[in-house]
């Protein structure tokens, strides 16, 4: 009914991982500095949680920026040898 994309390409996964690491590191550093300035560790945790939530919203869903280079799969080749004659195991099973 709906055509909702549920995948990322390989390079998109790399971009998403790099972006999430940058966001979480940035928010963690800012939170640590801010928490030290006001002497409240809870503020550090809140800022870090906000960074994790932002990184999750930006990187978990398969946004179009993560689907720019899809993989082109090869078409399967017909296996002519196995398609025409059954294997030895199949022959043995048929006899029993």
Automatic annotation (TrEMBL):
Localisation per UniProt entry: Endoplasmic reticulum membrane
Keyword terms, alphabetized: Endoplasmic reticulum, Membrane, Transmembrane, Transmembrane helix
GO cellular component: signal peptidase complex
Transmembrane segments: 21-39, 45-66
GO biological process, one term: protein targeting to ER
Membrane topology: Multi-pass membrane protein
Protein name, per record: Signal peptidase complex subunit 1
Species for this entry: Anopheles dirus
